[in-house]
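User:
Can I borrow your eye for a moment on a structure tokenisation matter? Would you put together a sequence-and-structure record for a protein of your own picking? Please set it down just below, with no commentary around it:
AI:
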Amino acid sequence: MSSFLLMEIENIDRRWTEVDRLIDEATNSKEIDSELYDIMCRAASVMMSAHFEGFMKDIVKAILKDANSILGYENMPKSVKNTFASYYLCVDDSNKEYNKLSKLNNILDSTNVEVVSEPFILPNKNPKASVIKTISKRFGIDDFFGFIHHSKLDLVFENSRSETEEFLSEFRSKIVENIEQVPYKFAYDRYDIKKRPSSEKNTKTLFEEFLEEFLQIRHSIAHGNNMQNSVSDVRLNEIKQKLKILQLAFVVLVSKPFSSSV
């Protein structure tokens, strides 16, 4: 039986069907109906943000379903257990509160409790860099964007669209090959995905800058601040590729506590 995570990955293209249709309609109307072109481009911008937000929630749920079915609470990664247990306690970083968390985890170890997704996701939040960081931190990944900073994923900012599409296909294939079951496997070194030095932590990464720029476009449309179209169909396709890379990076890093390196 395929893992729940694998089934979600295989549905990525289906998620983008609506966006692809909007961009295609924009391209087809570009020379004949400028008003329709602007409408399609603006709609695609908002739709991409919504799909990314929904994707993150579904990936979290899929990973936890796999972990619940294979590991059981006792064998969950410590970071996951702490996030889950602290959701039901008002804990801080003091030793006294940490002891409460430890005791609750010890009790839960002897049960068949199912780890649900609510403690890990942020409902109704746009996919800002801070949201991605928060969700990944709840899985024990302290610096999401640091892991992909200077990695081969940054090539998306240098390559042509055709080269990026080729890389995207290969990256996706490597993930699919190794997430059939828990523990998942992934060749982190192949893509130079690793924790960056602490001296670089205050440096904004290319992907953070990209997300900030994209969400500014989205917000200006969604909140009615800008009634003009500020993004072309060509740019939308470039944004789509970068978002797809980020989606796969999210899969690779949020699943890391349940993975081994190959």
Q: What stands out?
A: The mean pLDDT is 88. Residues 4-72+112-261 form one domain.
